[in-house]
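Request: Have a read of the protein record below and say how the chain folds.
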Amino acid sequence: MPHTVTPPRYAHAEGFTAVAFGQGGDFICTGGSDSLLRVFYSSKVERDQEAITLEQHSDNVLSLAVSRSKIVSGDEEGVVLCFDVSTSARDEGGKLAVEPSGTVLRSTLPARDISISGSERQVAVATDDEKLVVVSLLDTSVLHTLDGHRGSVNSVSYSPDSTYLASTGCNGTVRVWDMRGDEPSCVSVLHKAGYVCEPGSSMDQSKARWSPDGRFVAVPGSGHTIKLVERGTWQIATELGGVHSKMVSHVAWSSNSKYLASVGLDGHVVVWDVTARASILTHAVS
């Protein structure tokens, strides 16, 4: 599959870097071990513009989530911050406006992953704890504490309609929570579906992500594969594998849910055709 690679740009000091695209694809947000957040324009005509730099964190940024109008980020100290993103001036050729809107959560443990609900009213936070925390973005009150994992939680992902929340633990367990009603309930537990890893290292943890059409949760798993867990049956419908030679750490879906990108500790980015269950592009990151 023909592809082009844009020239690299300096983002952060050496170390773990979190990356997330804006929902419209017109910007990329990064967070680094230098405690900075940066927002880069991604279009060809704006790509060389100076990045927006946000300095509100005071420790390594470990997690990022981006929605229509918000960026939520978490750091090593367990501080989770929210930023408002305005694109109203973009239609007139104006710049993005990114402004801090406050502290969402102060945990005693590192914030490993974040997911914003489709309504942008709630955010789920995974820390080095056995419990997930769901916080209101309206008043920062803790709405729910989800207990069930036996070990640190390293990944959390809302379904597009916010009906379900998927979480993975360092012991490889995947849990699916029904978020409807006053009290969320766990509707499925898949043991050893994800990687088994030691807590405490961002590089050695993997992230599960829900497809935009809501059909599957992509879970990096054993054998350097990606398992697709089907909504409703909560069974592994298929596996994508045979390309990565080391652990798959992160996955990201295309907006039409037809393609899935994966990044492994082998230094390769792989793009998969989900329907064909085959890789269509492999790029080695130098």
Q: What stands out?
A: The first strand starts at residue 18 and ends at 21. The CA atoms of residues 6 and 234 lie 38 Å apart.
